Amino acid sequence: MREEPNADVIVVGAGPVGMTAAALLAARGVSVIVLEAQAEPVAEPKAISIDDESLRTYQDAGIADRIMRIAVPGTGTVYFGHDGRRLFQASGPAPYRLGFPFKNPFAQPELEQVLRTVLTENPHVDLRFGARVVNVTQDRRRVCAVTEVAGIARSVRARYLIAADGGRSTVRTLLGIDMTGRSYQDNWLVVDTLEDTRTERYAMHHGCPERPHVIVPGLDGRCRYEFALHPGEAEPGPDPGFALIERLLGPHRTIRPDQVQRAVVYRFNAVNADEWRRGNVFLMGDAAHMMPPFAGQGLNSGIRDATNLCWKIAGVLGGTLEQRVLSTYEAERRPHVDATIRVSERLGRVVMTTSKRLATGRDRIIRRMLETDDGRNYLEQMRYRPANTIAAGLMRSGDLGAGTAVAQPRVFDAATSKVRMLDEPAGRGWTTIGVDVPAAGWSDAESVCAMTGARRLHVVVGQTLPTAMANARVLVDVDGGLVREFEPYRGRFLLIRPDRLIAASWTPGDGDDVRAWLGQWIDDKEKKCDSPATTTTTATPASAR
What we know:
The protein has 545 residues and is of the alpha/beta class. The chain is globular, with a radius of gyration of 24 Å. The two termini are 24 Å apart.
């Protein structure tokens, strides 16, 4: 068996989730080997919508601009009733709260091409196609993945392994981890078409019980159509037959065989792995969970997994975080995934029912809800979608805002005299934000800064002129967004994790309590506060050791 050079992390699977994880790790200096069983990239479209949280993750990896070039800045989803009449348009919560459009259609092959290019350009990443994993072993210090490449067995070793190899995950199977949940028996036809003339900048969910269907226009004449199938029309598989495609698309457009980019009949699942971690192996994306497509959260949930885990792995490898922080990955992510699966199932039952009685009643209830402010906001702002918050893990329970994501408003950065999005002056690591805290009060945050290497930002929300501070970078509101986000925290410090969740908040005088709490997660020996330069948690690449 041929021995291969070690890396810090092995990522199994070069789909969007696996490559996103590799990009996040590489951005923090972690060496990564990506193993993909397919010899060539798969060109078939799959996921079709990316949200603002995911785009913020790509901003963290330094590639958001490249991703936005292949996306349509969307305006949400329009829902139609049983009679074909428009019910409402769901556009999400406050626009641009996280710095990006809320929902954005895209083509997965184009996303994968961007990610492949990014990883190929990065010296920390070794991207290998045609490397089929056939065995995984581990001890307390390392993981070994055995691959077959052109019939030759090769061994790859790393400290950690991330399995992002899809719903039929080889790694999950090798580890003997089961999934719990429900597999639906309803058949759906998905057709990705070319040369389409639709110009709508939103998805369309048609809740007609005779044939529930979804239409999602895309860039350059691409459009996705999904249809609920009647019993006996087709069975799951990649060849539904052109006659069926032509018949179902007939009311919407004429179609030729060469205009069908992909067509497949599928059934969806609502399942969650019984374990997301086994030793130093972590499951991510579809390898960890699968959900119905009706909330558009399958890929986005996998990207959230990567957002949660990768900075923690980088911190442990770099010696700034204790090993036990990795146990928070599943504890923090599973509740949100469970809630998202339940919402996806409910949306499918309600929006895509085939019962005329239920569809008629649904439309009547929706129209009544739209007559009230609360009901209209619930539907149009998609408040039925669970917020990405944590109630346990690396957060100080009971603190104001702890476990919630901080927004990304536009700010005036006094250090550069430029208007920027918040994450830019915050940097890639930890951040300590003081909200209208007097200069003298900042001494209380020094110990927390020293433990985390946090960049220090002073946010001005009051009607006072910004004053230069020696111990913090000053940010000023420009359009009301900064004030709206941070007014509730006036006079407090916020400790922001690298994934932009609030870990703790406190008033001057309570810094020692926060430091004591941090001690269980962070080794503060010889840590220095980051001012004014950015400090990021990095690991030494294996090739440099």
